[in-house]
Design brief:
The chain is about 35% helix and about 25% strand. The chain is α+β, with helices and mostly antiparallel strands. The chain has one domain: Winged helix-like DNA-binding domain superfamily/Winged helix DNA-binding domain (Arc Repressor Mutant, subunit A), CATH 1.10.10. It starts with a strand and ends in a 5-residue tail after the last strand.
């Protein structure tokens, strides 16, 4: 789904971890790092991939 040029993934950290065969803790740590870097925005069961400016 695209909303205002951002891709939105409707998944919990646990769901994503299961799909990627890893742990929720690993996913949470990596997503927090990506959020700090401004690459994603995290919400309740939502990961918004932010559009990079070119």
């Amino acid at each position: 789904m695209l909303e205002s040029d951002n891709a939105v993934l409707q998944r919990s950290h646990q769901q994503l971890a299961r799909e990627l065969a890893t742990t929720r803790e690993v996913i949470s740590r990596l997503l927090k790092k990506l959020e700090t870097e401004g690459i994603v925005a995290l919400g309740k069961q939502e990961i918004r991939i932010l559009k990079k400016s070119t």
